Amino acid sequence: MLSRRAVLGGALWVGASGCFRLARPGALEQPLSEEARSLWLRAWKDLDAREVLDAHVHVVGLGKGGTGCWVNPHMQQPMAHPILAARFSIYKAAAGVEDEEQGDAQYVAALTKRAGGQLVRGRHLLLAFDQCHDEHGVAQPEHSEFYTPNDYILKLARARPDVFVAGASVHPYRADAIEELERAVEGGAVAVKWLPNAMRMDPSSPKCDRFYDALVRLKVPLLTHAGEEKAVEADEAQRYGNPLHLRRPLERGVKVIVAHCASLGSNPDLDAPGQPWVDNFELFARLMEEPKWEGLLFGEVSAMCQANRAGHALREALRRTEWHPRLLNGSDYPLPAINVLVQTRILKDRGFITGAERAALNELDQHNPLLFDFVAKRTLRLEVNGVTHRFSPEIFTHRDVFPRLAKLT
Q1: Which of 371, 365, 374 is nearest to 116 (CA)?
Q2: Which pLDDT band holds residue 398 (cuts at 50, 70, 90)?
Q3: For burial by CB atoms within 10 Å, which of 3, 20, 180, 235 has the most?
């Protein structure tokens, strides 16, 4: 299976050769063909737009215009850190950033156009991203890839409540973690986002218990990455992504949403003698099969139809219809706008879509990568013993997973 590092490395090579476009151009102006429009309308069948939520949308900025955002300087030093800098350049192109001095505004403008410009649309959960902190709760910007403050996300969500919803990010080791969580929730945040591998936190640590108790008290779910994270080099940091670490918040009653269903990499099986390394998705599946976590543990399918994930885990997520009431949709924006990650040929070759659907999806992709991601997930199918499996409509709604998120009226 391709890693994100591998596909991005390949993107650099073909991009440098001039034979491949790294990220989407601006939206095409011509109207959709009848085939593309039909597929788009079919995607909205049985869905109420007031309940539809994209639960995984990143916001990144350079701090221009007083946003408070920050990106590690390593991401912008092509000579010293060529892979990091190249990846950041691709992200900027995918997000519609052409001028770094206006970068924060351009990122939000492109996202707002893509999310809010659709005739029929749901809402999008914007994700803040806290810095790394050490064992003593001291911020470590030198180990952080980027920082997107809660205040900025709350401001964006308040400005367009018809399009955006706020998701906070608070490192649990912070001395003021509870106060910051309470402040963000009071400001409108409906979820908390973690990436333990990159934020260097252990979800199974007792240090997190007070934070978990506050999440339960405030009725706020935890959306956390699990599985491998390609931005992290150290093996010990990758182990923070072990899905089995999430038993601790579950035991304290936290609603936990596992991003990407932990569908990359492997980790030690903490339940087995000798702790052999096991596929992260299989560890996630084990948690899903434990009856006591029903109503608390959820999976999220963002990025699972991208080139580096569209395999066994995607087939299982489609096939296991008993999981569908516990799965949520997300786009992992801006990744759907990166060409090398989104390859409809792979989806067709593996039987998830037809040739005609691929052509229509490619057209939608040229108009709007967010629209494409949504319609693609609604189009995917898996044939098993004469039975067709698709992602059920409830995967695309927030249901009761986000108690603080009211219907849009």
Answers
A1: 371
A2: confident
A3: 180
| Residue 108 · residue 163 · CB < 8 Å | no
- Fill in the amino acid letter for 206: P
> Which DSSP category does 338 fall into?
B
Domain 42-396 coded CATH 3.20.20.70: no
Query: How distant, in Å, are the alpha carbons of 133, 219, 236, 265, 276 from that of 228?
Result: 20, 28, 11, 5, 16
Whether 153 and 126 have beta carbons less than 8 Å apart is answered as yes
Residue pLDDT, tens place only, 205-264? 999 999 999 999 999 999 999 999 876 555 678 899 999 999 999 999 999 999 999 999
Q: Quick one: DSSP state of residue 120?
A: S
User: Of 361, 357, 382, 386, whose CA–CA distance to 372 is shortest?
Assistant: 361
H helices of 169-321, in order, are 177-186, 196-199, 209-218, 235-238, 247-251, 280-288, 312-319
Burial of 356 from C-beta contacts in 10 A (0-12 / 13-18 / 19+): exposed
Asked if residue 20 has pLDDT above 60, the reply is: no
Instruction: Give the separation between CA 324 and CA 317, rounded to whole angstroms.
Output: 8
Buried b (16+ CB within 10 A) or exposed e, 256-267: bbbbbbbbbbbb
CA distance 55 to 258: 11
Query: Do residues 35 and 357 make contact, with C-beta atoms less than 8 angstroms apart?
Result: no
Residue 333 DSSP one-character state:
B
Residue 365 identity: D
Torsion of CA 154, 158, 164, 169, to 10 degrees: 10
Which pTM does this prediction carry?
0.93
Tokens 């799965």 — which residue?
327
Residue 28 has pLDDT above 70, yes or no: no
Cα dihedral 309→205→325→282 (10° resolution): 40
Structure tokens, 121:
């649309």
Give the pair of three-digit tokens for residue 270. 């903490």
Q: How many CB atoms lie within 10 A of CB 252?
A: 16
